[in-house]
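Objective 1b: paired records.
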Amino acid sequence: MIDLDGRVAIVTGAGNGIGRAIALRLAAHGAAVVVNDIDHVRAETVAAEIAEIGAAAATAIGSVDVATATDAIVATAETAFGGLDILVNNAGLTRDAVIHRMTDPQWSSVVDVVLRGSFFMCRSAARLLRPTTAGHNRKIVNVASIAGIYGAAATVNYSAAKAGVIGLTKSLAREWAPAQVNVNAVAPGLVTNTRLAEAMPEGLLDRMVALTPIGRGGLPEDVAAVVAFLASSDADYITGQVIELHGGLELIPST
C-alpha cells in the first residue's frame, strides 16, 4: 500500500486529464496537494474533489513558463502545508504542424510550457526539496511522452520539448541524488479522455488503439498509478529512469 501521509505535493497542469488524475491519486494516498492550473475554475474544481475524499488541497493559479509564477506556486506549498516533498511537472500543450508550416509562436509556446516550465519549477522548488533534514527522499516526477523518445510526425515542437524533459530528468537525477531527491519521468503513449486525444485528426485515435497490443488506449489513471509509485518510498532506489506507458505501442504512426 502506497503511503504518502504527511507528504506535500505540487502537480502542475492539474485542472484536467492526466494532471487531475495524478492529483487525485496522490491525495487518495494521503498527500496534501497543491493544484496548479492556468484556469482557476478547473483548479478549484479539482481541489474540491480532493476535499471530498478527505484530503487537503490548495490551488495555485499561473503558467509555469513564467519564473515568478513558479516561485509563487512553490510558495503556496510552503504557506499552505509547510514544505514540499513531491513535484510532478505535468503542465503542457500542443500546437501541431509540419515543420515547414510551423510558426515561431507554435514552436515557442510548446517548448516554453513543457520544457522551460519544468526547468522553472525544478529551480523554484530547489530550496524546499534539496535540504536533507526531511528524513525521507523527496521526489520529482516529470511527465514526458513517447513522442520525446520515438518522435511523431507534425509535432517537432512537442517531441523536442518532451525529449528535453527526459534530458532534464536524467541530468537532475545525477545532480540531486546526494540530496536524497529522486528524479524520474513517465512517458505515456496514447492516453484517452484528454484534450490531446480529443484534438487528434479524425480516425487517428481509433487507428492507434487498433495498433496497441494490449487492446485499448491508456487512461489518465494508468499514468497516475505509476506517478504515485515513483512518488512513494517504495521507489527510493529508482532515479534517472523513464517509464514508458503505452500498452506495447512503441512507435507513433505517422499521420
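Objective 1b, second protein:
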Amino acid sequence: MSPAVTPRVVDAGPEHLEAIASIYAEVVRSSPATFDVEPPGRGWWEDVLAHVDQGKGHLLLVALGADDAVLGYVKTGTFKEKAAYSTTCEVSIHIADDARGQGVGTALYAVLLERLERTPLRLAVAGITEPNPASVALHRAFGFDRVGTFEDVGVKFGRPWSVTWYQRRLG
C-alpha cells in the first residue's frame, strides 16, 4: 500500500478472520503490546465476531488496502464484567507489520470513534504497553488522555512491562 492511499474501513466479516488472527498472532509472538503468550484460535475470533453489537459499542472493524487485503483491525468490547461498567468499552488496535506508519491506525480510529459517539457508551479506554510512542501518539491525536501507569504489571519475554492507561470521553 502506498502512503497516499487511504484504506477502506469496513465491518469485519468471517472472510476477514484469518487475516485478523494472523496479524494478532504476529503481535503475540513478537511484541509486548499484548500480554497473550499464545495466539487464540479461530474459534476465539469467531466468538468476537459473533458478539459484535453496534448498539452496545462492541465493534470489530478492518482496514482494507486497494487489493482488499486486511491491513489492520480495531475492536472494542467489555471493559469489566460488572454491570456498572457497561457504559465503558476497551479499545484494541493492531496493524500488520508492513502497513505501519501509513495511516491505517488513523483511518481505523476515525471510523471507530465516529461510531462509538452514536452509542450509549460514555468512555473508551486503552492500555498501552510502554514504550510504544506510535500508539501513544495515535491515542493522543484522537483525544485520549493519560490516566496513569501500572508499573511492571506484566511479564513477557522474560522481563516486566508497564502499561499506561488512556481514556476518551464519548457522547
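The beta strands are 8-11, 60-64, 70-78, 88-95, 123-129, 145-156, 159-169. Residues 8-122 form a domain with the Aminopeptidase fold (CATH 3.40.630.30).
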